[in-house]
Amino acid sequence: MPKRVTAVLSAALLAVALTACGDDGGESSPSITVWTEENLTDRMAVQNAIISEFTQKTGIKVKLVGVAEDQFSQTLTAAAAAGDLPDVIGALPLAAVREMEANDLLDTETPAQVVDRLGRDTFSPRALELDSSGGTLLAVPSDGWAQLILYRKDLFSRAGLEPPDTYERLEAAAAKLNTGGVAGITLAIAPKDSFTAQSFEHIAQANGCQLVDNSGNVTLDSPQCVQAFAFYAKLARDYSVKGKQDVDSTRANYFAGKAAMTIWSSFILDELAGLRKDAPPNCQECRSDPEWLAENTGVVTALKGPGGSAPAQYGEIVSWAITRDAAKDPSATFVAYMMNEGYERWIGMAPEGKFPTRQGFADQWNKLPAGVDAKKPLADVYPADVLDTLRESPDTFARWGIPQGQGKLVGATMGELPVPKALSAVADGSLTPQAAAAQAKAEVESIKRGIRE
């Protein structure tokens, strides 16, 4: 990172810390409570190490509490009712930020101050946009993971195919490569799998299909959405591995060399490189070279459909939120530290799923070791152009309902999964795309009414 930024921030940290501690030495050291959804044991250890250093430098004590993502809403509601909110919450998904906004639990002034202190121009503009409501920054975007289209570069090259970055190219490749015991694509279509919802949203966003409009009206029956239902279902029905493919089987099929393409999250990158024993690539060529599949895999981030105005992709931004009752100065100092001095170690916990939302960390991210059973920098496996594409992907992230302030609805639909259910019915021929879109719309409207009640 630029030395000037580090120096300015360090001075600011010191000033805030001295102010918080008082001048006469008689006041106790300030302290804050921080919740984190990065609650795995090894990641808690990393965060506690950063916190220890932070406390030594600033005098601000931090109590770190791990909170499971699937328990967050319940835990937050109980804490708010008891008047016992934490000061800061880390690794918070976009929908959860909007849930806190809807319940008036956020400090909506301090995040912008932190970003301005660090340098607004060092943040991904799209990440800031996704974390904003009506021009107000709700939280500080920390990092992100991306939904990707992975494709076999060797098969594409032999067939003279272009990278599958449009609907037309994706379908053409799936059709041409669906031969010789290899499926054109392996695509999630299981109706009870949230991964199907994420994969479809990736395809749908590319075509300009939105869950709701700016007034909150459900728009899943729009022409763009009907076309997306039809396109996705055709890929699954005509060119994918047979059966109700899900998050595990799509990865397994691609790793076995049984499919020329798949849609998966960036968390696949370390597994693809043979760095996890529980999910190793096992294609024929992989047996003698565990990195063969990674070296022969191309990556497409943003996709463009005929109904879309610009390429887009599904991605998740996680953020640092400061609560309405927080000790503001110590909380701001802590978040700024985690986004600067502690940032390399933060994104280093899982670089394949923590693309930096701040510029100036490209070289560090490339060199961060990824993997579980074995570790290796992503730059040792993937070419520079792939890493550049991945690292820049937060700038093309698009999400249903988030810009329209419908985070609660987004979370609820991921619980009940009306879209995967309708999508699966199109793939098996029991519903037309139009009927599936209408069914999904009706079910989402019902979920929305339940939220209001």
From TrEMBL:
Q: Does the keyword Signal apply?
A: yes
InterPro entries referenced in this protein's UniProt entry, alphabetically: Bact_solute-bd_prot1, SBP
Instruction: List the PROSITE patterns.
Output: PROKAR_LIPOPROTEIN (PS51257)
Q: Does the keyword Ligase apply?
A: no
Task: State the UniProt keywords alphabetically.
Answer: Signal, Transport
Please state what the protein is called: Extracellular solute-binding protein
Biological source species? Nonomuraea deserti
- Span of the secretion signal? 1-22
Domain of life of the organism encoding this protein:
Bacteria
- Give the UniProt family note: Belongs to the bacterial solute-binding protein 1 family.
